[in-house]
Amino acid sequence: MQKDTIAIHTGYDKKNGNGEMAVPISQTTAYAFRDSEHAANLFALKELGPIYTRLNNPTNDILEQRYAQLENGAAALVTASGASAVFYSIANIAESGDNILISDKLYGGSVTLFHFTLKRFGISVKTFKSDDASDLESLIDDKTKGIFFESLSNPQIAIPAMDKIVEIAKKHGIITICDNTVATATLFNPIKIGVDIVVHSTSKYTSGNGTALGGVIVERDNLAEFFKQNSTKYPQFTTPDASYHGLVYTDVPLPVFCLRARLSLLRDIGATPAPFNSWLLIQGLETLSLRVEKHSNNALKVAEFLKSHKKVQNVSYPGLKGDKYYDKAQKYFKNGLASGLISFEVESFEEAKRVIDSAKLFSVVVNIGDSKSLIVHPASTTHSQLNEEELRKAGVNPTTIRLSIGLEDTADLIEDLNQALNK
Ligand SMILES: *Cc1c(COP(=O)(O)O)cnc(C)c1O
């Protein structure tokens, strides 16, 4: 099936139940088993079905099936937020003593997760130059369990050398994880270029209206084979799990990454989405591709305007000819579309704050991917927990303003930015 059909139909059979046209919300904590044997079979994975909503839920399941197919994956697991999806994707492959290689351009929340919280758990990180991945291979050691990057980074709006990252990872038998939140499944499918795991914050473009938090993890086909070939590096998938009566995940004929994340991480940590949030995200997914095209076209027009404005020092938007990442956007993203984020520089820190405070139509908000246009000053908000050195490394300047272009008419957006800049 084609993506626009998958986003609307996959995983739901209207002929079951009452024929509800909208996917029903299974707002329940637990499920009645037919009898004790049915219950035992479900726990032993001899039969598949919902047990308890922390582990699985029919509404969440439909969102999972749609995302798995939209990302050309084998399976998906939805989580309560993008942050928990990122955390689980790492916790599934690494433990104390291991290390993860991360892109130098990442979402602020992921930077703090990697540098502080995971560090407390004994998982260390090494940062690589994502623009050309020239130092990536030299950072790999026998404790390197994953390579993490964003296909279109927030807020630097950078596109990494993804083919090279994948090639190096494959050579060394290391799992790649791509955060595809900003590019979205509409514009780019990391699995198609050989990435192993895709994560999203569905709170952003999938929701589309800023109404629900959510995250998703998607795994590629045949990961079980990969883990068997690299079993000394990833024994948690190929050796008995004492916490699940000696289950060997690669022995189960189900996509193994999400299986383990569900049976051990969701079981023990439980960042499960509320079915109502999944339902909202299912509504959002139906129009994702239409919206992302419009966000991208709007953003290009606004970026062109900013580029022509004398008070704007520099505009980053990969859809813009001459942008540092223009060629990569053409190469990787559908029709060269580059989603809705723009960053630009003004003269000073004070000027940046003044422009933000003068905008009327743009809301000062740290979210992205909303139908409403948003403006933010990363250095004093999303990235304020980083010190000056970390900010510089993360590619965020005190003079950077980030826009998330919404679905309004661009004439109004441009007029608003123009008056804010000229004030
Ligand atoms: C927002 C965001 C996250 C975190 O997602 P939440 O849903 O806010 O927890 C992770 N990665 C990227 C690129 C994001 O933009």
In short:
With 423 residues, the chain is an alpha/beta fold. Helix content is 39%, strand content 13%. The chain folds into two domains: 3-283, Aspartate Aminotransferase, domain 2, CATH 3.40.640; 290-422, Aspartate Aminotransferase, domain 1.
Radius of gyration: 22 Å
Strand content: 5-15%
Report the bound ligands by name, code or SMILES. Answer: pyridoxal-5'-phosphate
CATH architecture group name of the largest domain: 3-Layer(aba) Sandwich
Largest sheet: spatial strand order? 1-7-6-5-4-2-3
- Number-wise, the strands total 12
Within CATH, the superfamily of the largest domain carries the name Type I PLP-dependent aspartate aminotransferase-like (Major domain)
What general outline do the C-alpha atoms trace?
globular
CATH topology of the largest domain: Aspartate Aminotransferase, domain 2
Major beta sheet, specifics? 7 strands, mixed
- Structural class, from secondary structure content? alpha/beta
Distance between termini? 51 Å
Count of discrete domains: 2
Tell me roughly what share of residues is in helical segments.
25-40%
Number of helices: 17
Average pLDDT number: 96
SSE series: HHHEHEHEHEHEHEEHHHHHEHEHEEHEH
Cofactor: pyridoxal 5'-phosphate
Protein name: O-acetylhomoserine aminocarboxypropyltransferase
EC number: 2.5.1.49
Keywords: Pyridoxal phosphate, Transferase
